[in-house]
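I would like you to help me understand the sequence and structure tokens below and explain how sequence relates to structure.
___
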Amino acid sequence: MAIPDYRLHRGNYRIRRQRGQLWGSARWRNSLVIPVSEVLDRFQEYHPDLEPPSSSLQAEVALVLNRDTGEHDPSILFIQRAASPDDPWSGQMAFPGGRREPSDLEAGDAACRETWEEIGLKLRPTDSVGRLGDLRGRHGGRSADLVISCFVYLVDTTPTLRPNHEVSEVVQIPLSRLLDPNLRTSVQYEAAGGTRFPGIFLSKGDERVIWGLTYRFLIRFFSLFGHPLPPG
């Protein structure tokens, strides 16, 4: 059973740490490892649920897998948004990405463009692995007129990254760590009437949390490999 440990206050949301099951045997820990070969095989047969074309605003994000941390346990690249009084998601963890522009002609163009602009990582067509099902954005806990698409890429390594003014830091987290139940937490979002949303701490000693839209895409990603996360 998850036991609340302590609370942290972060503006209009609160973080409550939870302790899940302790890591068990090495065999159990290894069951959470998702090798690169399994990722490639699964996306070859996966057909995502996509939102039909509409008048909704559209945005794209890039879920970038890096095999440089090992074929057996690749990592996912996240950005921490720079602190800004004009940004309601200031300082939060996210995938690189942004809204589609008229110049973005093909699906995935905005995700690649924004990744280059935000962190200086050039994604090539050969890096593409697939796509997750689309999600609708939320504002104050309610569905918003915004459709977000998540494109998955696999890179062999990441060169020296160059975060722009929108990004304060780039972090890469192995898939197995994202599945560690001891890093599960919840976020009480005041703008949504105090509704509590699930999240994941970056590490045992790092109190930054992946939650919201980014977490919802992680739910879809890990569900492909039989690793369900708490619904968000």
Summary: The domain at 35-179+211-223 is CATH 3.90.79.10 (Nucleoside Triphosphate Pyrophosphohydrolase). The first strand starts at residue 3 and ends at 10.
